[in-house]
Amino acid sequence: IGDGDGALIIAGHVMADADGDEFDQLLLFDHRNHIAQVLLQRIGRVDRQRAVIDRQKPAVRGGTLRARRGNCYAQETRAMVTSFFFIGLPYIALFSLVAGSIYRYRKDRFSYSALSSQFLESKKLLWGSLPWHAGILIVLIGHLLPFLAPGLWQSLTAYMGFVLTVEVIGIIAAFMALIGLVVLLVRRLLSRHVQSVTTPVDLLVLVLFIAQVLIGIQTAAGHRWGSMWSAQTTTPYLWSLLTFRPDLSFVEPLPLTVKLHIAVAWFIVLLFPFSRLVHMFSIPIHYLWRLPQL
Q1: What is the pLDDT of residues 30-57, one digit of tens each?
Q2: How far apart are the C-alpha atoms of 24 and 65, rounded to whole Å?
Q3: Which helix (H) or strand (E) holds 138?
Q4: How far is Cα 257 from Cα 260, in angstroms, rounded to an integer?
Q5: What is the C-alpha separation between 120 and 197, in angstroms, rounded?
Q6: What would the pLDDT profile of 66-101 be if each residue is shown by its tens digit?
Q7: I need a surface site. Which of 6, 41, 141, 293 has the fewest CB within 10 A?
Q8: Residues 6+ apart with CB under 8 A from 281
Q9: Which one, of 266, 214, 242, 243, lies nearest residue 86 by Cα?
Q10: Packing angle between helix 123-148 and helix 234-242, nearest 10 degrees?
Q11: Does pTM surpass 0.90?
Q12: Cα 252 from Cα 184, distance rounded (Å)
């Protein structure tokens, strides 16, 4: 068989390029062809008379196929896991948030609150609740602004002074939230009175929030200037979900800690209607314009 440069010699289980060039890659054949049963050898050197001088060890096609199948299986598994955590889980969590909140409100309206335990223990609650709420409020604002106004946010983050200010405030707020969460968790674990009204979901949500804040701090420290790159990655990803055109290309290149940060956030949203977090929807705003009650 001529390749335009030199004759291709096939002899038994040996295949060589007669012009002196060794094969760079192992040739593969259709598995339905009988040639596929031939063991191939890559030729190390061919002399001027086109005779084979030395050979490398033969490579078995079956091993190569198994390796390729293994790689394909690993890629398919990663794709399935990524699709679940960043497409399936978000939609499940959002459905749970809407449907679960409505169901709980209609079934037991009086449970639609923070179920305050202040009358059981108030000192530790103050030192935990105050930094937690102040810190998480600042963090949420920093996450919502790039999502709600991406164009404005990108214009603001074009100035390094603004970026530095946002990053410093975000880190301080994150540590405030972390301190508050730890105090609240210790309070629920050590106070006998508070334990009596604590549910497994309460503890799970606290642990998830602590993990989420720690991952966020790690992300800020290991992958700096998140206020800049998030507008090009997580913001369009979230909008692709809300417009029912999920696009994983925005999250696939992200570091593992960022992906974990996103996934934990969806788990928190999933548990939202089954926890004390529903009190966010029960803020008595109507009290602002309600007539005085005597």
Answers
A1: 433 443 333 344 444 444 444 544 444 4
A2: 18
A3: helix 123-148
A4: 5
A5: 10
A6: 777 777 877 888 889 999 999 999 999 999 999 998
A7: 293
A8: 101, 112
A9: 266
A10: 80
A11: no
A12: 35
